[in-house]
Amino acid sequence: KAKAEPKDFLHISDFDKATILKILDHAKEVKALLKSGERTFLPFRGKTMAMIFAKPSMRTRVSFETGFFLLGGHALYLGPDDIQMGKREETRDVARVLSGYNDIIMARLFAHQDILDLAKYATIPVINGLTDYNHPCQIMADVLTIIEHIGQLEGIKVVYVGDGNNIVHSWLLMASVIPFHFVCACPKGFEPDGKTVEKARQAGISKIEITNDPKEAVRGADVVYSDVWASMGQKEEAANRRQVFKGFQVDENLMKLAGPKAYFMHCLPAERGVEVTDGVIEAPNSIVFPQAENRMHAQNAIMLHMLGL
Ligand code: CP
Ligand code: NVA
Question: Is the CB of residue 142 below 6 angstroms from any atom belonging to ligand 2?
């Protein structure tokens, strides 16, 4: 049965499989339209989006702003010094003020509780553009990319190698909605949140493995996925993590162990020579740039859905 439709796009698992697949289908359609040069589909005409960034960004900022513009709307970039949510002004006040001017809010924040509060007090849809906990728009774009290259997510093996971070949490929440085989290979002590792993396992549809052995993990993978070892907000841990994560670099040998059908994916930005080698990113089976481009198309469809368009 269909879950009650939430107002906000905060976690993939807030939606049922049919809705996630419908959004991805729509993303493909609108992508084809934009790729054809068609510029008369303007569903966001007369609409504005407030984009709150407490952290840096290239993909999220440019893909949301460009996507919203291409479909007729106007997006406002509010950087870390502008609103200073929680410091200059309380989150619940920001939420209600922005709701008075805008049709939709996109936010990239540190604490996940802040986006929950923002969504609670906003009367308009709030889209999660990454928190310390998750990154749902990224994994929607990733799945769109997998569908384009492999045909479907269902039944395939995705092996994430690295830190059990926000990207992993969104993969786990995706695995509670669509059945596939998800493996996270991370150093001891850097596993994803236990409750989120439990949630994915309890859904009982996907095979979920958390391991400390990347070589064993990647065997037979359809996708090998990497992300930075030190996320935004953890950069002072970077030197220590480089030691702890030795052996978790995705290099040519690891890709060879994965096998010939394995694609390489990375949410970017990548630190070449750290979590992934230059050769792996530049190899013919690396799909990191189509993946980055799909951020815009996945998000356009997410916004259309959330705005009921
Ligand atoms: N992948 C991603 O979210 O990139 P940005 O940090 O550049 O937005
Ligand atoms: N885990 C990374 C993802 C960046 C898109 C971070 O949070 O910095």
Answer: no
